[in-house]
Amino acid sequence: QPAPWAAVLQDEEVLREAAAVAVDAALLEGVLMRTEGFPNTSDVVNYAPFTLLPSVVPSALFEQAYAVQQDFNLLVDAISQNKEFVEQTLASTVKVDDFTAQLFRIHMQVLEEGLAQSVFLGINRSDYMFDCGMDGIPALKQIEINTIAASFGGLTSRTVAVHGRVLKVLGKFEEASRLLPNNPSKGLALGIAKAWELYGSPSAVVMFLVEEVQRNIFDQRCIENELWNRNIRVIRKRFRDVFEKGSLDDTRRLYIDGREVAVVYYREGYVPTNYDQQNWEARLLLERSRAVKCPDIATQLAGTKKVQQELSRPGILEMLLPGRAEAVARIRATFAGLYSLDMGEEGDKVVAAAIADPDRFVLKPQREGGGNNLYGEELRQALEKIRDSPERTAYILMDKIKPQPAINYLLRAHSPLQASECISELGIFGVYVRRGKEMVMNRAAGHLLRTKAIEHADGGVAAGVAVLDTPYLV
Ligand code: ADP
Ligand code: MG
């Protein structure tokens, strides 16, 4: 379905004016990023890349994505508490993937010692594309669920205002008024605040565990602000700071700089390059502590691609969510084809099918952050090299989703204004808080639409490929 502003796009002059307004509106609203050249100071900032126009999203699929989010929250939480399932599922992966193996070792070590943590906070983002089937009817298909450091909830809370302004400049007042309000910063902060409150130590702080290179700091600041507004102190520390100054008392309360930490919110720690030996020690210290980790290490493991693939096996969802047939059905409806490459006959068949028709699939390692997957000819060559080796079990295979492209303009600092054929990925933020066995909060907390030019098979906003967008429901 074409956007109601399609006709306006013919007029270059109008577009240029709209783009100039859009960029200034983004700066005014705080859709900001530090620059590549100066990633650790705010002396120089720029706007985060975004689309000139909202993108059309079928409202039925948008609603479907919201409707399944609480189910996904329950599912992730259930996986994180199921030691046997996590252990069995990752058994083949940890033999060949050192990073997953290291996370898994910490997971086992903290379970063996016994958890000091009794309040649990999950912040995730379930990402989807709209698969255009043979019949031309788009279907909601999950790409992945991010259970650690799911980002852009802050900045995207401010893009609706920008796109609303652009539509008005284009004379589309009625369309501007139909853009949905969206405020993940607030939703995520409510979860963090709830966990902080249940931790039960009013003088304790929330610690954002942040990267060495902090280009995306404004996205995090949006959430920080919401916490300060609720009179909760926020500190920002790196793994290195925790290694040097973090400690546990004899009840495993976590202290840093003389302050007790109630909640550790990771915005780091999901890729191998985040860790050296000291950082792994810091991670272990945090995991052993009583502080609420968002996520705890079990929940991080629940977000691996290998777990995602196992969930699609018959009976697994039913086992993890007993007595919740409707939730299971809603979740399963969003699954694309997912295939294990474990050694054996089943895996051999999958490998052969992928080599024969590589454009039907995506090959995924256990990595996050974009730019790691293999497609097409690269996929075929990689699989041919490892087809008979256990190395292949570091990957999973997934059906490739093929969305219908649409024209948009990707606004990036220092880039020319030009039309691109684009596809979008919709993410729904989920937040939940559990105390012991009791779910205290379980909700969807807003959405994120990211759009990229079709020539890029892979990659998110931080990877420099996708840009922030706003859905326009039809
Ligand atoms: P990451 O953890 O690196 O974000 P994803 O599974 O989200 O891994 O894949 C990265 C990107 O690759 C996605 O944002 C999407 O653009 C593309 N992608 C991933 N899986 C598929 C798929 N099954 N079909 C089409 N594109 C995909
Ligand atoms: Mg992703």
From TrEMBL:
Record text on cofactor binding: Binds 1 Mg(2+) ion per subunit.
Function of the molecule: Catalyzes the production of glutathione from gamma-glutamylcysteine and glycine in an ATP-dependent manner. Glutathione (gamma-glutamylcysteinylglycine, GSH) is the most abundant intracellular thiol in living aerobic cells and is required for numerous processes including the protection of cells against oxidative damage, amino acid transport, the detoxification of foreign compounds, the maintenance of protein sulfhydryl groups in a reduced state and acts as a cofactor for a number of enzymes. Participates in ophthalmate biosynthesis in hepatocytes.
Positions annotated to bind Mg(2+): E144, N146, E368
Gene3D superfamilies: 3.30.1490.50, 3.30.1490.80, ATP-grasp fold, B domain, Glutathione synthase, substrate-binding domain superfamily, eukaryotic, Glutathione Synthetase, Chain A, domain 3
Coiled coil (residue ranges): none
Keywords: ATP-binding, Glutathione biosynthesis, Ligase, Magnesium, Metal-binding, Nucleotide-binding
Pathway, per record: Sulfur metabolism; glutathione biosynthesis; glutathione from L-cysteine and L-glutamate: step 2/2
Residue positions binding substrate: 125, 148-151, 214-216, 220, 267-270, 450, 461-462
Organism expressing this protein natively: Centropus unirufus
Family listed: Belongs to the eukaryotic GSH synthase family.
Name of the protein this chain belongs to: Glutathione synthetase
Glutathione synthase substrate-binding domain: residues covered: 204-302
Binding site for ATP: 144, 305, 364-373, 375, 398-401, 425, 452, 458
PANTHER family membership: GLUTATHIONE SYNTHETASE
Subunit structure, interactors included: Homodimer.
Substrates-to-products reaction catalysed: gamma-L-glutamyl-(2S)-2-aminobutanoate + glycine + ATP = ophthalmate + ADP + phosphate + H(+); gamma-L-glutamyl-L-cysteine + glycine + ATP = glutathione + ADP + phosphate + H(+)
EC number: 6.3.2.3
InterPro entries to which the protein is assigned, alphabetical: Glutathione_synthase, Glutathione_synthase_a-hlx, Glutathione_synthase_C_euk, Glutathione_synthase_N_euk, GSH-S_sub-bd_sf, GSH_synth_subst-bd, PreATP-grasp_dom_sf
A Gene Ontology molecular function term of the record: ATP binding
GO CC field: cytosol
